[in-house]
Amino acid sequence: MTAPKALVAGNWKMNGLTSSVGEIEKLARLVAEKGAGCDVLICPPATLISNLSGKGIDIGGQDCHMAVSGAHTGDISAAMLKDLGCNYVIVGHSERRADHGETNDVVKAKALAAQDQGLTAIICVGETDAEREDGSTLDVVTSQVRGSIPETAMADNTVIAYEPVWAIGTGKTPTADDVADVHAVIRNLLMDRFGDAGEKVRIQYGGSVKASNAAELMSVPNVNGALVGGASLKAEDFYGIIATYQ
Ligand SMILES: O=C(CO)COP(=O)(O)O
């Protein structure tokens, strides 16, 4: 089976104001003029989803609650994201696993809520620096992948993002060989889970991806795109990563 079409996604985290509309318009112009050999997605803060949608770039959420609605002050549901035209939502980002105590069970429930609404769940996994130091990277990633994918998930509404926590926002990246090892393990888990359709699930790499290292990271076997933080905030920087798929 041929590799799935890559997904290059920007996670803006808690960055961006209404003035960021100009950035998405610039990105849409770059993609329209120069092309993109991958799917392109921006996940802005929830406050900006309405402003940024309809500009020619797919828009997704950064998180969702596991319930459809209810008394959950400050949260938003997958149904609300769907209502605004999102097709994707990130769940289980390490900043949420760490800052909000999200366990694999919570991440799985959020992914299920997303998939129930017809959204594709981008499920994030990745080891901390301490876990890497003690040699448990593959064990951690294995239990996160196994524990975070809903029983009813399908290959085409599931994306896995491998984001080593120590590589996020640090300028450090694993070697291409290390990325290959982790992605091969994830691919095998997906084949166990989905059978042959596991080949179709996109496995993104995330953590200090920028235009200057994207070509090397994106050419690693079983890397099907990137989840990009800092370098997704400026259209030209982000397009430099997208362009590796021309
Ligand atoms: O956490 C990330 C994307 O979700 C990666 O962030 P950086 O690209 O800023 O390292």
TrEMBL record:
It is an enzyme of class 5 (isomerase). InterPro entries: Aldolase_TIM, TIM_sf, TrioseP_Isoase_bac/euk, Triosephosphate_isomerase, Triosephosphate_isomerase_AS. Its main location: cytoplasm. Its EC number is 5.3.1.1. Pathway: Carbohydrate metabolism; erythritol degradation; Carbohydrate biosynthesis; gluconeogenesis; Carbohydrate degradation; glycolysis; D-glyceraldehyde 3-phosphate from glycerone phosphate: step 1/1. SUPFAM superfamilies: Triosephosphate isomerase (TIM) (SSF51351). GO terms for molecular function: triose-phosphate isomerase activity. The keyword Oxidoreductase does not apply. One of its GO terms (biological process) is glyceraldehyde-3-phosphate biosynthetic process. Keywords: Cytoplasm, Gluconeogenesis, Glycolysis, Isomerase. Substrate binds at N11, W12, K13, G169, S208, G229, G230. It catalyses: D-glyceraldehyde 3-phosphate = dihydroxyacetone phosphate; L-erythrulose 1-phosphate = D-erythrulose 4-phosphate. GO terms for cellular component: cytosol. The keyword Cytoplasm applies. The active site is at H93, E163. It comes from the Bacteria. It holds the Pfam family TIM. It is found in: Cytoplasm. Homodimer. HAMAP family: TIM_B. Involved in the gluconeogenesis. Catalyzes stereospecifically the conversion of dihydroxyacetone phosphate (DHAP) to D-glyceraldehyde-3-phosphate (G3P). Belongs to the triosephosphate isomerase family. This is Triosephosphate isomerase. It comes from Paremcibacter congregatus. The gene is tpiA.
